[in-house]
From TrEMBL:
<protein>
    <submittedName>
        <fullName>CBS domain protein sometimes clustered with YjeE</fullName>
    </submittedName>
</protein>
<feature type="domain" description="CBS">
    <location>
        <begin position="93"/>
        <end position="148"/>
    </location>
</feature>
<dbReference type="InterPro" id="IPR046342">
    <property type="entry name" value="CBS_dom_sf"/>
</dbReference>
<dbReference type="Pfam" id="PF00571">
    <property type="entry name" value="CBS"/>
</dbReference>
<feature type="domain" description="CBS">
    <location>
        <begin position="7"/>
        <end position="66"/>
    </location>
</feature>
<keyword id="KW-0129">CBS domain</keyword>
<dbReference type="InterPro" id="IPR000644">
    <property type="entry name" value="CBS_dom"/>
</dbReference>
<dbReference type="InterPro" id="IPR051257">
    <property type="entry name" value="Diverse_CBS-Domain"/>
</dbReference>
Amino acid sequence: MRVKDIMDAPPNLIRTSDTFEYLIRMLNEVKYRVIFAVDKEDRLVGIITEADIIKVLIPKYITFDEFLISAMDESYLEKKCIENRDLTITEIMTKTVLSVHEDDTVTKAAALMVVNKIHTLPVVKDSKVVGIVHLINLIRHIMNILAKGSV
């Protein structure tokens, strides 16, 4: 079976020139919490996850040191949101993106997810995002195999 047979489409896309503020508004309206960044030609160039968003708001020097975390008052988050509202997606996104081609096997997608400890992969065709495959898509595929009685 091929990735195109189990993928969801269309995925959530955002332009690299869009802003942090636009991203947050978009996240409020979309189904998935993973957004793929595309350039002017709609080619996949990055990915934005919830972790990338939090990295924008929490300073790089912060560790899980309780003292440093407790030193941030309630207004800290509000200030950081306003300060960073005009950051571009290019400044926020993770630029290294693993992907699968729509004609790749489901086994390849599963292996990429397990080895890299990720839950979602963009599906591409001609460098453009055409779908998204999640672990749940793979689990449903396994359930279908078991329901048919052939493993």
